[in-house]
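JOB MANIFEST
job_type = single_chain_structure
chain_count = 1
residues = 80
[input]
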Amino acid sequence: MGYLVNVCRGELLAAFSYNKIFYVVLLYSFLSPALSALREIVEDEKESAGSRIAAARSLLEYGLRLTEFNDILRDLEGVE
């Protein structure tokens, strides 16, 4: 069982390494407009306080996830 896990892990890492630039660019291309829209809501004083707080919370959550994603990428690069 351990051998199978290591083989699958190795194949996953190889596939990930090969495609990671593509996926990172794709991720950023989808996130950029969404993050810009959230930022506009946060900065728009005409928006309700609830909307601004929800947008700010979303930005913070995405920032945390992006940081975690970068940490995972760094860890995977170290494994290769």
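[summary]
The chain has two helices and no strands.
Residues 10 and 45 are 50 Å apart (CA to CA).
exit_status = 0
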